Amino acid sequence: MADHPWGRDVLDYCIGPNGSEDFFKSYFEQKALIVSRNEPDRYKELLSVARIDTLLASRDFHGDDVDMARADPPITRDQFLLSNGYADRGAIANLYQEGGTLILPHLHQADLGLKSFCRAMESIFTSHVQTNIYLTPPNNQGFRTHYDDHDVFVLQVEGEKLWRLYDQSVDKPYRGEGFNPDHVQPGELVEEFVLKAGDCAYVPRGLMHDAQAQGSADSLHITVGMIVKTWADLMLEAVSEVALRHPEFRQSLPPGYARADYDRAQAEAHFNSLVKIIAEEANLENAFDLFVDNFIRSRPPYSEGAITGRGAATTPGAKFRIRPDIPWRLAEDEDRLVLITAGGELIFPSAAEAGLDKVLDGEVFNLSAFEAAGEEEAQKALNQLFGYGVIERVG
To answer: Mapping DSSP to helix (H, G, I), strand (E, B) and coil, where does residue 281 land?
Structure first.
């Protein structure tokens, strides 16, 4: 991970030289941040127009993996998809020549570099991080003015794009609260700027914006989306746990409650009694632990090198350390230790505790770290940690 430029400090890679402390205090979920640099090659290791050209020529893209957009006239999916649901390369090329923006959603799922970058961002934000790739021909626009329902970092890889920001219209919209141009207007133009290759912008959800490629070169940018959990999500889980213990929450609403002559006084009294129970019993720890565990388990395991390095865990004297940015939580279950990590749960005997402490403390270790568990269990522990990508070989 550290071999990549984002491996040293992924947030600095995006918004440096602006510090992370100032970002979280002054910008995160509040206002846009524009970082202009004279570093056109800053993001070249992540992607390039040439790589997209090669991908489009060599890979059969399914309809879920490709999209196109154009502000005017709009593009419909039947214009670039075949009857079998796969992308029509020729149609995509023609539409691109005619000003269409090529979109590759979730390319990080098929590209190790983008996947590594997303994993590093996830370690900072504790949120699902996704990428959408936008390639726009010069002087064209993919989308009309809109807002997103998730925060984004925009990394300009090649070319230039003119951005316009408008009065914020929706404060922290819910995930799935899609933009409807009939309901929301952009308001006054408040800022206009050009992102050049190597520049970055952070745009919080709900902020109205539009962008248009400019200059003579094709514009390629990566939109990095942060899919967060909210306090509302956590509160709903805490209330659900309370409801499991109290049948009063599971009672049906009063018969006839939708009638015009229904008297709500009794319902209000019951509602207030439930609110009181929530105030007294809602537990942060239980709900928080569940969210932590669910997030960690939902991350894919880091499997790069699992095949080519299959013998590493059984090589005498081989040394290892925990991979950077691997999420984990160590729990106890009677006489076992449970390491909750990307991809699921790894089970260890309690005798492996000293070895696991070394691993999780970031120490360089070898098989002997687990010798207290016995020879067979020690090897099994090392095999699990290496197979699930929790550790990497260092010697």
So the answer is: helix
The answer to whether the beta carbons of residues 236 and 282 sit under 8 Å apart is no
Instruction: Identify the residue whose tokens are 């590209």.
Output: 111
Question: For the chain, what is the mean pLDDT?
Answer: 93
- Name the nearest CA neighbour of 39 among 10, 5, 11: 5
CATH class of 10-227: mainly beta
Helices first, then strands: H and E counts in the chain:
10, 15
Using CA atoms, how far apart are residues 76 and 269, in angstroms rounded to an integer?
53
- The structural domains of the chain, with segments of one domain joined by +, span 10-227, 231-290, 312-393
- Give ∠ CA 348-352-353 in degrees, rounded to 5: 105
Give the Cα separation of 172 and 245 in Å (integer).
Answer: 32
Taking the domain 312-393, which CATH number applies? 3.90.930.40
- Whether the CA torsion 364, 368, 374, 379 is positive or negative: it is positive
Q: How far apart are CA 318 and CA 392, in angstroms?
A: 10
DSSP letter (8 states) at residue 375:
H
pLDDT tens-digit map of 82-113: 999 999 999 999 999 999 999 999 999 999 99
Q: Which of 203, 123, 95 is nearest to 156 (CA)?
A: 203
The one-letter amino acid at 107: L
